[in-house]
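User: Design a sequence. Structure:
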């Protein structure tokens, strides 16, 4: 959450402790944490096979979460048709997200995949579920991973629906909450999504505001080694130059 440079070392140390005292899910927790470290570093391609295998396992809760993550892995690695197929498979079940302590985390990932695929029909349903929780914080596990303000998810879904004012309100709240939490990685990601929304809307002064968000977010992403966001900020800079 704070962008610690030694996050992977900490995760592995926690796994070794859990394994030494016989915690049955220590391996699952490590896999989840390493997945999201890889996500921030732009290295999801390296874990695609492991995520696919988990998605095909017989354990429902684990399989569902892995299916959601797999759809995002495909989005992030340029396999758009496979991403769309995986996402539509989940959508066909009505986005039947298990109501457990992982719910908000899986909804966050679904929102990211939905936005990447620009699926407005799915966004309508997901936004209706996420909007009432937009001022809360999303977690997976107890928690094993903190996604930050769910206002980010509400914002990207509202953007997909071109509900610009709603999106801006969600993003503004999300950045403020993430900064209060010390959730530096989430704050950088939200600035990126917010800047993208402003360039999509293209109202007067949107480009200048987007420029400010890109500058602040890129600085944070560089300090934290967020390769994924740096690529996205670079794309936004290119869009800004063409406006």
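Assistant: Done.
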């Amino acid at each position: 959450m704070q962008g610690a440079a030694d996050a992977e070392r900490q995760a592995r140390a926690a796994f070794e402790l859990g394994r030494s005292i016989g915690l049955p899910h220590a391996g699952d927790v490590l896999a989840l944490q390493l997945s999201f470290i890889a996500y921030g570093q732009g290295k999801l391609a390296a874990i695609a096979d492991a995520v696919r295998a988990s998605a095909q396992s017989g354990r429902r809760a684990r399989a569902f979460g892995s299916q959601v993550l797999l759809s995002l892995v495909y989005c992030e690695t340029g396999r758009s048709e496979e991403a769309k197929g995986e996402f539509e498979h989940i959508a066909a079940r009505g986005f039947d997200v298990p109501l457990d302590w992982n719910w908000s985390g899986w909804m966050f990932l679904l929102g990211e995949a939905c936005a990447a695929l620009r699926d407005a029909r799915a966004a309508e349903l997901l936004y209706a579920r996420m909007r009432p929780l937009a001022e809360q914080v999303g977690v997976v596990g107890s928690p094993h991973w903190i996604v930050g303000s769910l206002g980010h998810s509400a914002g990207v879904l509202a953007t997909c629906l071109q509900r610009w004012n709603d999106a801006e309100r969600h993003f503004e709240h999300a950045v403020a909450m993430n900064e209060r939490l010390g959730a530096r990685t989430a704050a950088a990601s939200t600035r990126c999504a917010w800047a993208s929304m402003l360039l999509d809307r293209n109202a007067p002064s949107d480009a200048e505001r987007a420029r400010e968000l890109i500058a602040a977010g890129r600085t944070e992403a560089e300090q934290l080694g967020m390769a994924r966001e740096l690529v996205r900020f670079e794309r936004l800079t290119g869009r800004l130059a063409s406006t």
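Residues 7-241 form a domain with the Serine Threonine Protein Phosphatase 5, Tetratricopeptide repeat fold (CATH 1.25.40.10). The beta strands are 137-140, 145-149.
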